[in-house]
Design brief:
Number of domains: 2
CATH topology of the largest domain: Rossmann fold
Structural class: alpha/beta
Distance between the termini: 53 Å
Radius of gyration: 22 Å
CATH architecture of the largest domain: 3-Layer(aba) Sandwich
Largest sheet: 6 strands, mixed
Strand order of the largest sheet: 3-2-1-4-5-8
Order of helices and strands: EHEHHEHEHEEEEHHEEE
Helix content: 25-40%
Number of strands: 11
CATH class of the largest domain: Alpha Beta
Shape: elongated
Number of helices: 7
Strand content: 15-25%
Length: 263
């Protein structure tokens, strides 16, 4: 675990894992497996953000086909809250479930939706948040990481999961099983693969925490991703000094705060 997250996360009664996923919901089980193998505190609940199709794949594979439950059983993991209510669909510009991120408007709506989820999940000081950017489109991962930089606290964490080939992105691979389990490689070879031989590791991503530079109105209420970025820029921008010849004053501003100095 990185130094910034080296504190004892078990002190936080609510430890949340938020994963942005596309068509590979396996990043959830892979991340949980890697945390368990590293001896890191496991989340008490998992939340998943995806498009309509990605959410349906997560329901069918992780819940209906029980790959989430199988992981917990295979490695005797403690209870982790994860059901249909923890799978969330991104909203399009018309506040409808998003099928895909195809247009500029879709891209902006996805950014707003992801940013708002991370703002809400970091609002409670009694929680810690672990954001995984291993799944979904690259823009989804970027927005999730950037939003965590804006709203993240010392107890929060950002990561990417690494899977050894040829198991990486394999639709039948969910985690290294503690027993032999055979799947078959894609393509004409159909080479048999034993999931027990796969290697999965977690790559922590350091990030700069800018939360202290955001005004309380942004931290407490819903705003767009671009508004939040602009607000952070205004409050964290360089200092300015202006000479008022009429009042013989120097007027300075830093972090959005103004002050005057008379002659």
């Amino acid at each position: 675990m990185p130094d910034t997250a080296a504190m004892n996360l078990t002190h936080y009664p609510h430890r949340l894992l938020l994963a942005v996923t596309g068509l590979s919901p396996q990043v959830v089980t892979e991340t949980l497996y890697a945390l368990h193998q590293q001896g890191d505190p496991l989340p008490t609940a998992v939340h998943l953000l995806s498009t309509t199709e990605g959410a349906e794949r997560a329901r069918l594979t992780l819940l209906t086909d029980q790959w989430f439950a199988k992981l917990c059983q295979d490695y005797a993991l403690p209870a982790i809250a994860f059901d249909n209510n923890h799978i969330h669909i991104l909203q399009d510009p018309h506040n409808q479930p998003m099928d895909d991120i195809r247009t500029v408007a879709d891209n902006q709506a996805a950014a707003d939706s992801i940013s708002e989820w991370i703002r809400r999940l970091t609002a409670d000081h009694h929680t810690s948040l672990h954001v995984s950017i291993a799944g979904g489109r690259k823009t989804m991962g970027f927005y999730a990481g950037y939003a965590l930089s804006l709203f993240g606290r010392q107890q929060d964490r950002l990561s990417h999961v690494l899977v050894s080939p040829p198991y990486e992105s394999h639709p039948q691979f969910y985690y290294p099983t503690p027993y032999p389990h055979i799947i078959y490689a894609a393509g004409q070879s159909s080479k048999p693969l034993d999931t027990q031989q796969a290697r999965v590791t977690l790559a922590d991503i350091p990030f700069v925490r800018l939360r202290h530079g955001l005004p309380e109105l942004i931290l407490a209420g819903k705003s767009s991703f671009s508004q939040t970025v602009n607000s952070a820029q205004d409050h964290l921008g360089p200092a300015h000094i202006q000479l008022n010849n009429h009042q013989l004053k120097l007027v300075g501003s830093y972090n959005g705060l103004k002050s005057g100095y008379g002659s």
